[in-house]
């Protein structure tokens, strides 16, 4: 007997087990119980299936966006290569003329064509380098559809996917590409503290809220038990604040809970461990200050973001600037903890 059917049977009066219930034979009563149990279980299964379908549709939409971005990159490169090929053909024609008659005029014309071709060639080199980084990012995004790079509970990336994404973005930062920001997000456990069993059912909902708030180019992974890392390419701390405040509001309105956030952005000489350690320190400060707090690690200090009005009531404020000397960096977690 199904658990929910057994529960319903246990709620019946003892008369069911003896003879009749409200004038019905025992067999008819048990049949009614079985029907109620079936309908109840079917409704629960339908709701779960709807949630799975919604998540699958979100993933399909994300895959379509990745395909569109890859196609856009390829189309742009194809156009640039056609233009460059035309310029190269002109240069080769002038080269053959210079080789044929060897006059000063032919040589000057060849030098002129070489000068005209130099700029576009250097520009094409830069575009190819950028396209390579973009293709790598989209390729890594595609890899999150495999189980080896996806957290099974929430459907977002896991530690392996985060490591690869940061490696690509840090490589681009070393080459002088635009900076990026990182947000570390955690559910508030409440004054008495939620247990792990109470936290886990909320994580898929929080993951969905994060996806709704972030851009198509952003990347989210689960980090530890109840935290998420959101990587935001081509984003400053100001842009990351917009995302964090949007997420705090949505979490309170849709999940009836609050979240704490820690923000930082890439700096010269960063590696993945140091970058995540700063975000972790900011989140640690936010949690220590109370619930629904947002702290920013700007490199020299950790400061609470008070640029926007309170979204939900918060605890009594602590000092909004914490010198680095007051932060216990020894408590920071390793760069890529295992999910459980």
Q: What this model shows, in words?
A:
This protein is of the alpha+beta class and 340 residues long. The chain folds into 2 domains: 80-139; 150-331, 2-Layer Sandwich (Alpha-Beta Plaits), CATH 3.30.70. It has helices spanning 3-10, 15-18, 26-101, 104-143, 159-174, 196-199, 203-213, 237-254, 272-289, and strands at 20-21, 24-25, 180-187, 219-223, 227-233, 259-265, 294-297, 301-304, 321-323. A 7-stranded mixed β-sheet has the order 4-5-3-6-7-8-9, sandwiched between helices. A two-stranded antiparallel sheet has the order 1-2. The longest helix is centred in the N-terminal third of the chain and has 76 residues, at 26-101. The relative contact order is 0.08. Mean pLDDT is 75; it is low at 11-21 and 313-340.
CATH topology of the largest domain, what is it called? Alpha-Beta Plaits
Structural class: alpha+beta
Main sheet properties: 7 strands, mixed
CATH class of the largest domain: Alpha Beta
Low-confidence stretches: 11-21, 313-340
Sequence of secondary-structure elements: HHEEHHHEHHEEHEHEEE
């Amino acid at each position: 007997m199904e658990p929910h059917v057994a529960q319903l049977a246990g709620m019946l009066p003892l008369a069911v087990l003896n003879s009749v219930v409200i004038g019905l034979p025992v067999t008819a009563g048990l049949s009614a119980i079985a029907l109620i149990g079936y309908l109840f279980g079917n409704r629960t299964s339908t709701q779960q299936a709807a949630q799975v379908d919604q998540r699958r549709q979100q993933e399909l939409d994300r895959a379509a966006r990745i395909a569109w971005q890859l196609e856009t990159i390829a189309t742009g490169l194809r156009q640039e290569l056609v233009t460059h090929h035309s310029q190269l053909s002109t240069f080769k024609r002038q080269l053959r003329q210079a080789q044929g008659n060897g006059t000063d005029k032919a040589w000057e014309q060849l030098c002129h064509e070489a000068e005209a071709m130099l700029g576009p060639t250097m520009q094409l080199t830069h575009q190819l380098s950028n396209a390579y980084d973009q293709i790598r990012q989209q390729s890594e995004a595609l890899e999150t559809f495999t189980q080896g790079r996806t957290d099974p509970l929430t459907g977002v990336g896991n530690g392996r996917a985060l490591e690869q994404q940061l490696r690509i973005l840090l490589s681009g930062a070393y080459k002088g590409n635009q900076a990026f920001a990182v947000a570390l997000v955690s559910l508030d456990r409440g004054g008495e503290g939620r247990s792990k069993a109470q936290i886990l059912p909320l994580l898929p909902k929080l993951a969905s809220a994060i996806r709704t708030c972030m851009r198509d180019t952003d990347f989210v992974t689960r980090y530890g038990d109840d935290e998420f890392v959101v990587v935001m390419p081509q984003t400053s701390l100001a842009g990351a604040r917009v995302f964090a405040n949007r997420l705090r509001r949505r979490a309170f309105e849709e999940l009836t809970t609050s979240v704490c956030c820690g923000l930082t952005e890439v700096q010269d000489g960063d590696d993945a461990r140091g970058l995540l350690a700063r975000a972790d320190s900011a989140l640690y400060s936010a949690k220590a200050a109370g619930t629904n707090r947002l702290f920013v690690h700007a490199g020299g200090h950790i400061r609470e973001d008070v640029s926007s009005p309170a979204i939900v009531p918060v605890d009594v404020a602590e000092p909004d600037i914490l010198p680095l000397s007051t932060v216990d960096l020894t408590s920071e977690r390793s760069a890529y903890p295992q999910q459980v």
